[in-house]
Amino acid sequence: MSVLSSSSIFTSLQQEGPFAVQKSALKGSRFSTATRQWVKDLRQDSNNISKYRALRSQLFEFLGIESFSQIDQLIHSQELKKQRTQRAFQLLSNMFGIDGTPKEIDDRVYEYARTADAVINSLKDKILSPYASFIETTNEIEMVNNPIELMLIMFDDRYHKKARFEARRKITLMTLAASIDQRERETEIATKFTNFLGFLNSYVWSSDLKIGELDPVYLHSEHACNDFRCTHVKVLNPKQAELVNLNPGEKLTVLKRRRFVSGARQVPIYVSIRKKPPEAKVLKLLRKNEKNPAVAVDDELGLMAVLDNIGDIKLFQQHLTRSAAQANSLMVLEDISDTLIENSIYRGRAIGSSDKTSMLKFFARLGGMRVEFIIHTNQTWLNYMYQQDVSHNEYEVKRIFDSGVIELLFPHDIFHLDHGKTRDEMIRFFRRQIEN
């Protein structure tokens, strides 16, 4: 279900719907022309009426008011805003299970605001970097971290339409950030991440290397002219790489590798270990049209590995199982998808994924954790980085645009972006970076 559909759970952010931010702030006057038209539009869908009543009840309770007519007084009274803020923060702490002193609760809520800003900034800095001037947040909104103040801005006609939309958007993103933080505290994800790193260093990687020690190598690759897929790759040491003169269609890519021991062999492996940051989880909730992180975010812990060939990948799987046993844990592989086999087709369920993608993907359950593993050969990893229609940068563009998230966060009538044109231009932008 798209985040832009009428049944989306993010209806309150949609600019093509009854909750759209208007040129002037609605003050709830019963007899104004704008209010009458708005009620008429709202009544076209009974589901929207139910959503409106729920939102109105939450708004009134959060602001501590009984009608829209009381909002103006609250906007212009610093003393009232201070009182309502203290009450609101206590309500939020109970809702999201935040323990601590009032100062600690304040800091936690302000952290949600910083995550909300990070969501927008992450898109501005990468996926939409050439359009940063179009989508940068209004200074006054980025500086406000108090949800009471943000909510009041939505009804303050002194603020421009864009600023009022951004205030609403920031509150929505803060709510998602709070849900994610609650989930992380409940599942102790930070502790599990530390334990996972400890498991790898104690049982998986070669004891001949110090913790964090890496061996740099270079992948000298040749790529097809029609789709830039990797046709040949050779591993070079740094001295050999210095002698390479690249021809058109060739790339030189650095990898810093660890090692694990299999029998008498020291097997090299490049590893990228990640704990998904809060802003990435917020974007995933939006893409999935979901507010519950327990349902939508199943890959909080992840490891991507690159090995020389499929034979080494099989050795790594065996080594993982034995390492888990040495750590007194059974390891079970779940949701296995293997498209490294020739002529196999990747059946990606994610929006924007390509059937041409080759990888071994599975979840490993061990030591009280569930970790996503994505494993490549050198050649499939280079395709994952560079091949047309497969590369990760292209995939990120497609999934964020095709899921409707960009339109939801940066609606055309406010930010003046042609989303179809921007999507295609960003794909060309990343292709130029790769191929040139």
Please describe what this structure looks like.
The protein is an alpha+beta fold and about 425 residues long. It has 2 domains: about 10-185, no CATH class; about 190-390, no CATH class. The chain is about 50% helix and about 15% strand. The protein has 19 helices and 8 strands. It has helices spanning about 35-40, 45-65, 70-75, 80-95, 100-125, 130-135, 140-145, 145-155, 160-185, 190-205, 240, 280-285, 295, 310-325, 380-385, 390-400, 405-410, 410-415, 420-435; strands at about 215-225, 230-235, 250-260, 265-275, 300-305, 330-340, 360-365, 370-375. It has an 8-stranded mixed beta sheet. The longest helix has 27 residues, at about 160-185. The protein is globular, with a radius of gyration of 25 Å.
Quaternary assembly: single chain
- What's the β-strand tally? 8
Helical fraction equals 40-55%
Terminal Cα separation, in Å?
A: 37 Å
Count of distinct structural domains: 2
Spatial shape: globular
Count of DSSP helices? 19
Strand order of the largest sheet: 2-1-3-4-5-8-7-6
Query: Structural class of the helices, strands and pairings?
Result: alpha+beta
What is the succession of H and E elements?
Answer: HHHHHHHHHHEEHEEHHEHEEEHHHHH
Detail the poorly predicted runs.
none
The average pLDDT score comes to 90
